[in-house]
Give the backbone structure.
Amino acid sequence: RLRLPAMTNNLTTTNRHSHLSARNSAVLKRKAVVIGEAVASDDADRIFPDQDFAQQAHVPNFEKYLEMYTRSIEDPAGFWSEMADSFYWKKKWGQQVNSENLDITKGNIKIEWFKGGITNICYNCLDRNIESGNGEKIAIHWEGNDRGVDDSLTYNQLLDRVCQLANYLKESGVKKGDSVIIYLPMLMELPISMLACARIGAVHSVVFAGFSAESLEQRIIDCKPKIVITCNAVKRGTKVINLKDIVDSALSESSQNGVHVDLCLTYANELAKKREDTKWQKERDVWWQDVVPKCSTKCDVEWVDAEDPLFLLYTSGSTGKPKGVLHTTGGYMVYTAATFKYAFDYKPSDIYWCTADCGWITGHSYVAYGPLLNGATVLVYEGVPNYPDPGRCWDIVDKYKVTIFYTAPTLVRSLMRDGNEYVTRYSRKSLRVLGSVGEPINPSAWRWFYDVVGDSRCPISDTWWQTETGGFMITPLPGAWPQKPGSATFPFFGVQPAIVDEKGKEMEGECSGYLCVKASWPGAFRTLFGDHERYETTYFSAFPGYYFSGDGCSRDKDGYYWLTGRVDDVINVSGHRIGTAEVESALVSHPKCAEAAVVGVEHEVKGQCIYAFVTPVEGVEYSEDLKKSLVLSVRTNIGAFAAPDKIHWAPGLPKTRSGKIMRRILRKIASRQLDELGDTSTLADPNVVDQLIALADS
Ligand code: PRX
């Protein structure tokens, strides 16, 4: 019997492995072990690819995948050089394509790909596609918050806009290597700003426009941008959010902390707020529309080394301070382009929509760079997905004939709750591939997405990856093998996942443990900005020899990977990654909070929600008002998306005698699994647990 994911019954001979020659099957059997002891399954809970889909797919069957995967592992340099050859390089990279060491015990971690190669990612996204005849193709369709408000840009027009901004940035003194903070909502000006920075070799740092002034200030202080790009306001649903006010406050605070930014380029989003109603600092603020359109639409490219930084993106970790994840140019370019093409089976006729915001990594890699590198038509939506009603997404899908729709499980679950009627009243016939990202997708949400949204005909790419990985790591390739609802299935080319036990020993076959990666891949981040030591200790020292993802994972008897969520102190709320320590420090900054401990608890729609145990300072009474003001403290410190769902009063916290908070116990109390508290005898004061239980619903 072949040790491959079983492809029986529903498949015709063209894409089942039964026709493989004996020699091939022996080779594949050996190779399958590489991706995890896959064995033929008798499990009925699999969804087989449609035969017509598989036949047209880039990777039509598992055999082809294994062939490509094996090559990518045995000859990474050759494999990735070929992928890189589809891009324009002013100068080819040197002899060595990549550096391999991920073993901290053997020396410092210094990942490099295509070092010495000279290129530019903006050139490859725009000029290259225009030169190959796609100048008049739509690059971006933009759909505004309100129905009937829309816009679009062809590749030619996008290049013009990018060049104008790039010229303005240059005139304003932004040089190669300088950082630029972009605090914009999903206007076309957001990808335009990213590309303009890339064109001149500046390092962009997009800050999600849902972050508070304090979070923005923290990032400004860390990366010291030459300029901040923002807009005056944005409409999200029925609300108007005054982004410029947030920027004003962040800039004045950062200035007081020694980091002064001279220029704040502000796009006037007149649909949300008039210019004259916007607070203005004449010596610092400039309206985008007053200066950028006057600049030339021609801007020479700044050619950069493959290892020159492309962007910084701050993300949450186990400790309080957000980490500046740094991605460089060449490897990221090749990796995001390849993953986009294969994991969505992208074809030039596709209309692609990813609902993520460019403020997160998904928006970087799969709204902007990956699709544009492939010359795709991308839809950018400004608003909220259920405004004015829960049918908006499908209305947009029909309006633009979207073929690939990529979103997060939290949205799937929320739309599922609103009922099928909102979906089925739209045709959705154009859809051919669906995608999911950000958190594990529970099988029932998967089924609904598949059956109701995709009319049981569109494969779902459940893509597991991280800010740090740059692009997809474990993902289905649509059409290539049967799917299992809730499993991200198999590794992408070049990715060698390893599931290790507590001691760091790699396990084979069916198992569960910590998800690591064994060798470097082109899209990997290269450092944490300004703190390479933290990079090495956070990611490479827990299990020497491996990159440690922070996720738990199991592999089933068929070799399919199942992500089980974070194993560290990171919570995943609606696909947003939030560090418990960040929320705790926001709570503790409240003058009436003595101590706080935050855990994640399962939530029907959000996946996880934030549950905070709070000890008020001596003499302070518990009250609903205090709860509200504690939640407000998190909103102003981090942003509304990190607001705790529950504040649980805690006269004391369960600590060991050495003072360590036992979060395991807090998690059990928070999820009301009171009969599973386990051993509490090692606590300094075991009575604390009874007190917490008594206060659970107060
Ligand atoms: O826990 C995993 C979860 O999201 C984390 C990464 O968060 P972030 O860096 O913000 O990037 C999100 C978008 C890539 C991971 O450590 N995660 C992401 N995708 C999946 C997932 N968990 C399960 N299945 C996924 N498909």
About this structure: The first strand starts at residue 118 and ends at 119. The first helix runs from residue 22 to 34. Residues 315, 360-362, 437-440, 462-467, 488, 549-551, 563, 565-566, 572, 577 surround adenosine-5'-monophosphate-propyl ester (CB under 6 Å). Confidence is low (pLDDT under 50) at residues 1-34.
